[in-house]
Amino acid sequence: MQNDSLDVAIVKRVRAFELRVDASFAPGITLVAGPSGAGKTTLLRTIAGTLRADAGSIRLAGTLLADAPNVHVEPKARDLGLVFQDYALFPHLDVAANVAYGLAARRVPRVERDGKVAAVLERLGIADFATRRPATLSAGERQRVALARALVIEPRALLLDEPLAALDVLTRARVRSELAELLATLRIPTVLVSHDPADAVCFPDRVLVLEGGTVAAQASLGSLDPSTSAFVAAFLGAAATALRP
Fold first, then answer.
1. Which domains are present in the chain?
2. Which of 9, 21, 199, 203 could cross-link with 194 by S-S, CB 3.0 to 4.6 Å?
3. Starting at the edge strand that comes first in sequence, how are the strands of the sheet with 28-33 ordered?
4. Largest Cα–Cα distance of the chain, in whole Å?
5. Of 216 and 195, which is predicted with more confidence?
6. Strands 63-68 and 55-60, bridge-based pairing
7. C-beta of residue 117 within 8 angstroms of C-beta of residue 152
8. What is the pLDDT of residue 1?
């Protein structure tokens, strides 16, 4: 087990559905793929702590976050950055205030908070947007703001729930490349849920395939075996098509 890994061995039941995952997410990007209803978002929410595991444990860099049924660290105390599919920005706050929200909730002093916000806005190339409201930004710009809000708390792991799904096709291709370049600089476990095989081309290092609530495969994109299942075969075929010029 790696000291800085995110280690998940959980069971989560949602009505008749049961999710069983035993996986270790090393620093770097793991793309979680699978058909609709496979349990991708349920996995992310259970790691984040917004859903409570029914059995098993979650550890981050050796720190116990959950050990069902007795231990359940609250989401805000898990040192996790989370980017939602719809970005979940506060429309009445400007960009700087949106990014500062997590720091304010942790009672970080104002001067320190302002410095951290300015630094992460500069890093993501959106310093000029600090006083603008989310409604005035493009979808790609809003995604950067959501990512800045997740990163400003200096999380020990990052969770992204289909972060490109809200973008149109042309914007998605550009932002996907930009996101891949940024995430490659992070040295923390990053779990990216996606339904789009084209994402696996930009985030190919590790792919975890969920089917029917269980891990069907976990490997690099190039090492996935198409004979694993019909979904894996179709996923690889679509990814290969996305590679064509």
1. 1-79+158-245 (3.40.50.300), 88-154 (no CATH)
2. 199
3. 71-72, 63-68, 55-60, 6-14, 17-25, 214-219, 206-211, 28-33, 189-193, 157-161, 80-83
4. 56
5. 216
6. antiparallel
7. yes
8. 42
